[in-house]
C-alpha cells in the first residue's frame, strides 16, 4: 500500500453506535458484493435449497394476501433515484422479496467480520435499509406474524453465532477482530489487559462469535463510582447518553419525529403494566451501546429485584418516515433509522425489564429496560425477583444485536443529571458504573 503523504486517510464513518456505516456508498458496495455472490451462485445453479426457516418465511408471505401485497409494495415504493441504494441500471439493489429471502439465507451462516471501510454489524438491517422505511414496510414490520417469523429466523442465525465455526472472524488479518485495523479502535485497544481472554490461544480463547461479543471486563477495569453513596446512580451499560427526559406522560405519540416517551407503551403487557402508573410524570434516561463495546448490564443502584420480564416486540420497525413524491427533490427517510429511532424503539422493540427497589427510599422503585434492536436482539436476564443487588453487579446481557437501554424513575423522584457529555446521537460512551445521575436526600438543603 502506498504511504505517500498525498494519500487520503481511510474513512471510518458510522451511523449511531457504529452498527452500520454512515457513508451510504460503503453500505451500497457491501450490499452489492453480497448480491453478486448470491446472484452468481444462482445463475450457475449452485445456490442450495433454501433453509427451512427461509422457506417458511416465503410461505408466510405468499400464503397471506395482505403480507404478499406489503412485501411487494415495499420494494416498489423505494424511489429509483439517488441516494437510494441502486444497481448500475438504477434499479433497487434488493429487487423483490424473493431476492431479499435469498440474501437472508446467505447471512445465516456468516459472522460479522471487522471491515476496514465501515463495519456492517447489522447485515440483515442493511438488506432492509430502504424498504423498511416505506409505508408498506412500516406496516409489514409491525405485523405479529412477520415478527414471529423474524424471531425464528434470527434464532437460527444465533445458533450459528454460538457455534465454533463463527469464531473464524476472530483472526489477525486486516478484516479480523484482532487485526491491525481493529486495534486502532479505541475500545479494542489494550484488548488483552482490558478483557478476560488468552492471547496465546486460537481466537484469544473465545469459542464463538457470541462468546467474543459478550466478553467480560477484567476485574477492576471499570470500578464502581460512589459505591457507598446511595444518592448516586451508576451507568448500567458502557453506553453513550441519548436522552434525559422528565415528566413523561402516561400515553404519548411516540411514533413521530420527536419520539416522546410513553409510559403505557414502554411498560406494556400483563407483567409490566401494573407498575406503569407509578412512573407517570417520572424521568427516563436513555443511552445506546456501540457495536464495538461491552454488552453486559450491571446494576445502577444498591437494591432488591422486584420483578423481571421480557416483552416481545418488533425487530425491523422504525418510526414513521415521510417519503417525497418520485419527482420531488426533497430528501426522503433518514437512512440511519432505526438507529435514530431510539426513543420509538423503547415502545415497540423487544425489551427486557428489571424492576428494582432501591435501598435509597428517595429513589424507591425504578426500572432498568434493555432494548433489543434489529438482528438477534436477545435480552438475557440473569437475575430474579428477590435477588439482592449491589452497584456494579452484573444483571444480564445482550447477545448479538443492536442495543439501547433506559433507566426509568417514578413520578416525584428528583433525578438530577450528572452526565458530563452532551446528549444525542453523536455523544461518546461513558464508562460502565460511572456515576451519571444523582437523587438528593429529602433532607438535603433543609
From TrEMBL:
Top-rank taxon of the source lineage equals Eukaryota
Q: Does the keyword Transferase apply?
A: no
User: One GO CC term of this entry?
Assistant: mitochondrion
Provide the L-tryptophan decarboxylase PsiD-like domain boundaries: 51-185
Keywords, alphabetical: Decarboxylase, Lyase
A Gene Ontology annotation in the biological process aspect, one of them, is: phosphatidylethanolamine biosynthetic process
Name any one Pfam family assigned in the record: PSDC
On whether Lyase is a keyword of this UniProt record, the answer is: yes
Molecular function GO labels: phosphatidylserine decarboxylase activity
InterPro entries given for it?
PS_Dcarbxylase (IPR003817), PsiD-like (IPR022237)
- The molecule here is called L-tryptophan decarboxylase PsiD-like domain-containing protein
- From which organism does this entry originate? Morchella conica CCBAS932
Amino acid at each position: 500500500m502506498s504511504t505517500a503523504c498525498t494519500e487520503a486517510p481511510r474513512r471510518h464513518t458510522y451511523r449511531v453506535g457504529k452498527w452500520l456505516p454512515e457513508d451510504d456508498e460503503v453500505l451500497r458496495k457491501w450490499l452489492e458484493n453480497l448480491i453478486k455472490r448470491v446472484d452468481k451462485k444462482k445463475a450457475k445453479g449452485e445456490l442450495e435449497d433454501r433453509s427451512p426457516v427461509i422457506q417458511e418465511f416465503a410461505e408466510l408471505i405468499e400464503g397471506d394476501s395482505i403480507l404478499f401485497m406489503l412485501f411487494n409494495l415495499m420494494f416498489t415504493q423505494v424511489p429509483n433515484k439517488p441516494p437510494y441504494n441502486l444497481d448500475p441500471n438504477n434499479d433497487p439493489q434488493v429487487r423483490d422479496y424473493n431476492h431479499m429471502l435469498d440474501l437472508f439465507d446467505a447471512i445465516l451462516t456468516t459472522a460479522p467480520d471487522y471491515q476496514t471501510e465501515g463495519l456492517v454489524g447489522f447485515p440483515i438491517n442493511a438488506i432492509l435499509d430502504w424498504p423498511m422505511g416505506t409505508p408498506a414496510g412500516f406496516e409489514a414490520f409491525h405485523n405479529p406474524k412477520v415478527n414471529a417469523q423474524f424471531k425464528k429466523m434470527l434464532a437460527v442465525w444465533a445458533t450459528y453465532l454460538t457455534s465454533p465455526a463463527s469464531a473464524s472472524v476472530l483472526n489477525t488479518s486486516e478484516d479480523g477482530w484482532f487485526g491491525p485495523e481493529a486495534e486502532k479502535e479505541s475500545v479494542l485497544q489494550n484488548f488483552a489487559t482490558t478483557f478476560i481472554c488468552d492471547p496465546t490461544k486460537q481466537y484469544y480463547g473465545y469459542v464463538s462469535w457470541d462468546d467474543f461479543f459478550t466478553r467480560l471486563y477484567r476485574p477492576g477495569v471499570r470500578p464502581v463510582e460512589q459505591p457507598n453513596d446511595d444518592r448516586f446512580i451508576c451507568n448500567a451499560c458502557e453506553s453513550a447518553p441519548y436522552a434525559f427526559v422528565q415528566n413523561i406522560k402516561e400515553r404519548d405519540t411516540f411514533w413521530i419525529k420527536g419520539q416522546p416517551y410513553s409510559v403505557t407503551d414502554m411498560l406494556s403487557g400483563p407483567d409490566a403494566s401494573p407498575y406503569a402508573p407509578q412512573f407517570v410524570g417520572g424521568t427516563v434516561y436513555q443511552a445506546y451501546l456501540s457495536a464495538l463495546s461491552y454488552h453486559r448490564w450491571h446494576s445502577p443502584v444498591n437494591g432488591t429485584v422486584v420483578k423481571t420480564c421480557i416483552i416481545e416486540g418488533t425487530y425491523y420497525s422504525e418510526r414513521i418516515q415521510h417519503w417525497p413524491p418520485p419527482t420531488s427533490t426533497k430528501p426522503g427517510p433518514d437512512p440511519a433509522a432505526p438507529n435514530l429511532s431510539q426513543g420509538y424503539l423503547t415502545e415497540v422493540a423487544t425489551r427486557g425489564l428489571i424492576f428494582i427497589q432501591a435501598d435509597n427510599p428517595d429513589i424507591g422503585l425504578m426500572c432498568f429496560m434493555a432494548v433489543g434492536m434489529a438482528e438477534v436482539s436477545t435480552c438475557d436476564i440473569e437475575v430474579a425477583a428477590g435477588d439482592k443487588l449491589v452497584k456494579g453487579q452484573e444483571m444480564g446481557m445482550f447477545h448479538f444485536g443492536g442495543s439501547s437501554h433506559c433507566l426509568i424513575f417514578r413520578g416525584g423522584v428528583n433525578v438530577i443529571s450528572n452526565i458530563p457529555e452532551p446528549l444525542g446521537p453523536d455523544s461518546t460512551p461513558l464508562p460502565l458504573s460511572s456515576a451519571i445521575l444523582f437523587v438528593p436526600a429529602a433532607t438535603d438543603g433543609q
